[in-house]
Amino acid sequence: MKTTFLLAFALALTQGGTAAAQAVSSAALRLEDVLSEVKARNPELLAAKSLSEMAQSRIKQAYALKDPVLEFERMNTKYGHSFIDDAGDRTIGIKQEIENPYKLVLKKRLARSGASVYAGLYAAQANQVLARAKTAFYKYYISGKYEEIYGETADLLKEFSRIAEDRYATAQGSQSDAIKAHVELSRTISMLITAQQEKEAAKALLNALMDRDVEDYLPPPLEADPASSLGEFPRFEAAALRSNPDILTAAAKVEEAGGRLELSKAEYLPDLELGYRRRRSTDERMDRTYDVNVAVTLPLGWTGNKRAGIKEARAGRRGAEAEYTLARRGVSLDLKEALINAKTSLRLLELYSTSVIPQAQEALKIAQTAYQSSGGGFLDLLDAERTLLDLKLDFYRYRVDYQTWLAELERLTGQDLSEVK
Q1: Which CATH class is domain 2-20+27-419?
Q2: SS3 for 263?
């Protein structure tokens, strides 16, 4: 039939394009390689890393002394004479402001806390970007699997269509059976095309995360890791408290806020200024003399600005402590949800692989045998085919859901799951 020929031709084009792409490279795309390239090249991560390095470089700046001041002075110059050549006193001096050493220690600690905050933000950003890369990889994987399943189903439906046409030609079946087979084949090819489009979109996202051209070729992804058992919630929560970047960043912010409070209190301490001057003078008593001076600042508490600074710093510390508590509770809640969903997907995978799909495959064989022997209806055959198709799609969706939730657990704990103890 003309419709059958057109559908088969369209299917051959889609499969041929896939085969041609696969012929470019036989190497499978590994998740580890994707993550390695994302870490090395992703612009978002490189920008966050630069901010962390900038914060690290501020540590030495925080406790460095101010530049000394070099002074040249000409005094007692008679009116109408040059102060350069005819000055009565010519002095050269140097002054150095020295901030209270305790303040410098506090500023150094504060800068280190700030660097820890930015390091935590970088780690959190890396966690998020890598989680997106994992999700894109699994999307690329499941789209390829859907493409494969729809292709196999289309081949099976072409066989059903041939059987229905043969039965109609020999007056053993109805024309409606052949039409239903063509309709089902058209529907499957439509879903095949959709899966291919989703695969291309996932590939483009992966390339973008690796800072490649979105149209660069990627080989088929390596088969997702098989399911494995998972531990209990307390183990994951303890790992998150040790390594979760959001929690560590919030803790660093608490430390930073505490440092600001201590520094604001230290504003009541005086600072120093040291000075030295050497003099040449026309007055013999003053000629070749020198001066040394020590100045001390007078922190005035009655002005109120220092008390206001302490009040502000205390409020900042309370806010940072509240954010830390919120981060801990939020991570614990997200961990619980991720662990429940991962275990649910794992149980469904085991159920589908051991009983549900084998039973559906057996039901399809029975329905096909019955139809060929005129013992069953064509609708029963199509129903068995649709059931098996849906179950296969569900199986891979659960498999990707499982891997995605594992990636979420790794993001929340800040560790590879093999390292969670």
Answers
A1: mainly alpha
A2: helix
